[in-house]
Amino acid sequence: MDLRPLGRTGLMVSPLALGTVKLGRNRGLKYPAGDGLPLPSDEQAMALLVAAADAGINLIDTAPAYGLSEERLGNLLAASRWLGGRDRWIVSTKVGEEFDPATGESRFDFSPRHVRYSVERSLRRLQTDVLDLVLVHSGGDDEWVIARSGALETLRQLQREGLVRAVGLSPKTLDGALQAMRSASDYGGACDVVMIEYSPVARQGGLGIDAARLRGVGVLVKKALGSGHLEGVLSRTPPEIRAASLGTVEAALRFALGKAGVTSVVLGTSNAEHLRANAEACERALAKPA
After folding, report:
1. Nearest-CA neighbor of 261 among 220, 225, 223, 224?
2. What pLDDT shows up at residue 59?
3. For residue 234, what are the contacts with CB-CB under 8 A and spacing of at least 6?
């Protein structure tokens, strides 16, 4: 896969990113039949990472809210010498949301003290000296998180300390994504990256992507496949995409990756064959029409 610039961060990332919630969490999930499924074994997780490397994927997305994901990734990648070296990967994680496996519920803490603790914990879990990207994992009250919590200011300080390369926000709302860029002077600089929901059935995120592109902010797309709920996706893609006779996954990826300003789409899986199929679909989606 040809790498793409992630806004003005200086990071170059693959158009398809590997989401890793399924490596560490099997409760409180929204994708079909997600709750209760057994977590993959270390052998299966390692096969997934090898498949990602073979496909040219270099962006791995994780979070403390993904249960054991960070720790498992750190152990597997360190044991395999990062499958070509640490510099071969862009590692993205998050702060703010904590998941309790005993209750299957999340709690949120955006305080400066917790943000610093969370970043330092992620560094230990992932067994690395620097996190390439850290996003604030909003719980829904985006405007308060941006303007009042102190989370973004703390990430900027950690960035100045060299522990984080780029910072951003994974908002729940379009207004949150827009405010993250409008309120730049409130916390010392616009987000470097935003992670926005965008798909043929959730097009409102396009306004946030447009705003990000105008400001040089990198864009990662989440839920491009509707968390696995594909009903109605193909029928709602633009006519020119439907005319290309693409499958549902390819059509959704072409829709998202064809949007000006989008750098990468994050798709989660724990299955190596599924990942290879997604990578092939991504290549077809990016191919120029005949």
Report:
1. 220
2. 98
3. 200, 242, 248, 251, 252
CA–CA dist 19, 4 (Å, integer)? 18
Q: Is 187 a residue of the active site?
A: no
What is the extent of the structural domain holding 253? Answer: 4-284
Do residues 165 and 124 make contact, with C-beta atoms less than 8 angstroms apart?
no
DSSP state of 202: B
**Residue 290 placed within a domain:** no
Q: Which residue has the higher pLDDT, 189 or 81?
A: 81
Q: Could you tell me if residue 72 is inside a domain? A: yes
Instruction: Determine the longest span between alpha carbons in the chain, in angstroms.
Output: 54
pTM higher than 0.85 for the full model? yes
Q: CA 167: distance to chain centroid?
A: 12
In a domain, 57, yes or no: yes
**In contact, 6 and 166? CB cutoff 8 Å:** yes
- Which carries the bigger pLDDT value, residue 20 or residue 239? 20
* Tokens at 277, concatenated: 């199929």
Classify residue 237 by its DSSP letter.
S
| Domain assignment of residue 289, yes or no | no
Q: What domain count does the chain have? A: 1
Q: Which residues does residue 268 pair with via DSSP β-bridges, in sequence order? A: 19
Look up the CATH number of the domain holding residue 61: 3.20.20.100
Give the integer Cα–Cα distance in Å for 128 and 267. 23
Q: Is-contact 10 216, C-beta < 8 A?
A: no
pLDDT in tens, 125-178: 999 999 999 999 998 899 899 989 999 999 999 999 999 999 999 999 999 888
Q: Is residue 225 pLDDT above 60, yes or no?
A: yes
Q: Which of 31, 66, 187, 198 is catalytic?
A: 66
Listed residue (169, 170, 225) closest to 30, CA to CA: 225
